[in-house]
Amino acid sequence: MLLARPLRRLRKGNKDEVAEGYCQTAKYTEEFAAMLAAEARWIGHALAQLDIGTLSPVLNVGSSDAAFREQVQPWIHNEILVPLHERGAKVYNLDFRSGDGIDLHGDLTDESFVAGLADYGFRSLLCCNLLEHVVNPAAICARLEHLVPVGGYLIVTVPNRFPYHPDPIDTMFRPDVEEIVRIFPSCRLVRGEVIGCGTGWDYVGGNLISLVQKVKQRLAGMSENGGVKGSSSFVPWLFREFRQSCVLLQKNQSSGL
Length: 257
Prior knowledge:
alpha/beta
């Protein structure tokens, strides 16, 4: 794995303090855009059922940086990345921005950048909570399909029920399993389901102070991005269940761009 230090499971700490420190420097409202704990467990379980030789090297698309994966949302690190590392997989973390723990950075709409990614010979990829933040998800999916060989795997997750969360945009794309499968025409569905991921109240740990902090962070982050439209959208979700559409796909035919 392309990291300067061995991966280890992280112990629980004061996540509110960590999140507050992170959001003071975050360019976007990432805390509301990334992976939920139940989703990470689903992904980890799906990966565990596959032979590591069919997975490595793995491309983690939209990875964010090490601080986010390890401190703000440590279930990404503990449930997905550590088990892959322990099984001997190489994981390349890709994000639009550069940063600590980001191995590759660039724009998936840039044809030359995507062409360069093909040189790494990825056998699988993770695309989690990305497609609701792009204008043309089908075009991005075509590029992602092209990066894995026939027989390779893609794990894709997208919110099915989740509040507005721009990073820097949110198109409100909220597909079910079938809709995700349709935008990956060169793949077959291995496993897919819409899973419950708790409520907004669960997300803040049932803590009113934490809720106030997170709302303030979100308002500040959205102001940095040109406005606060939709900033109150989290409130009705305090007692509504978040749901994620999660799919494991296998590429079964050649794709072309």
